[in-house]
Design a protein that fits this description.
Pfam families: PHO4. It is a multi-pass membrane protein. The chain is mainly alpha-helical. It has 20 helices and no strands. The chain folds into two domains: 9-188 and 197-234 and 334-447, no CATH class; 240-330.
Amino acid sequence: MLHLAPASTGSLIALVFCFVLVCVFEFANGFHDTANAVATVIYTNSLKPRIAVVWSGLMNFLGVLLGGIAVAYGLVEILPPDVLSPPNGFPAVPMLVSLFGTALAWNILTWWFGIPNSSSHCVIGALVGIAVGDAFIHARGLNHSVDWSQIYHVLSGLIVSPILGLVLALIAYMILRAVVKMPALYRPPAGGEAPHPVVRGLLILTCTAVSFSHGSNDGQKSIGLIMLTIIGLMPGTFALNPDHHVDRTHLAADAAAARPLVAEFDTYNYRADAIASIDRLSSATPLMPSEVRGDVYQVVSALRSVASNPAASGAVKAQARHITADLRPNVEYAPVWVRALSALCLGLGTMIGYKRIVRTLGEGIGKTHLTPAQGATSELVGAGLIMTASHTGLPVSTTHVITSAVAGTMIGAGSGINTKTLARIGLAWVFTLPATIIGAAALFYLLD
């Protein structure tokens, strides 16, 4: 399957199947993750469920459209260059099926049991699993196929953000409680009673902020995956950025500047492949768009290794980053229609399937039910962290940020933590990465 001919009927059918899978995954991401955004407004009767999910879906849509693509390509660069952009233009069908199938299966499994789980963890685990599977297929060491520095960079946001969510929400809740003396903020909703208009407005505002920030971060993840699929479907059209003039002379100059850096400071075992790519980019030999894309990614991967090498001087690292920034616009982009498709799938997914997660957040994390003050504080802190991560190119988990923030407010209120629910969430957090790594690695190996 790995060597399906680029224009064959089999490869086109497989890639169309992958395209459907990525849309379904983003749809599942919407009804799984975005429940975190609507939980407080629904649970506190600030908005009717139907209105809340439609509004949240719209904000997710706008977040995806306006959120950029830094997170999108920060994720896909976990893959080895020869998997990310296969040589000779072969479609990466096994990679796409392994990625979407594994991530989607785990996402639906945790949703079925009402466990707030991270779609980001699912995708990252599957990407790492594919890199591991690639190492076994080619009988080479993991250091050759797995870019540990990039994985560390991506995982750092996922590890730190829940801790920050808990601590910052605890502090923010304590400040709010000391400053604002409105009793309606600190008692759970009663029956169908709507909260005070000021409280209601605050909760709608924080729901809007979380929904928009979720779209700006999580929506980007599917943008990168959709791009991988359409590049496989139509490499001649989409392998290189059609809105960025690819000047072979300029690429040759960048390649020549990268050569001494890669030759001396690349520690990621891609040196030989990167030097070969530099030679091709530096020559006048005609290359297919998919071949240029593959060579650019080989050089970018090597330059990332140079930039993270402790033996390299500050000037060398700065030069490596400068060349990388110059090369990336040739291969890292997203047409408006891809952003719109991602936003549409995420927004539609938001409008269904939210009840299981809403119930867990509203009633299961603390020993008492969620109050408006706790909901507003946790969502405001969550939105701030997610938006910050989106601008820095770090993928974070909306689920884990909001869940930890809710736990922080429960601690601040002295209402206690439901250890059984948190244990379930924690186990899902712990097992998501190994489960998706093993699943994707096995599937990728079998589909070879």
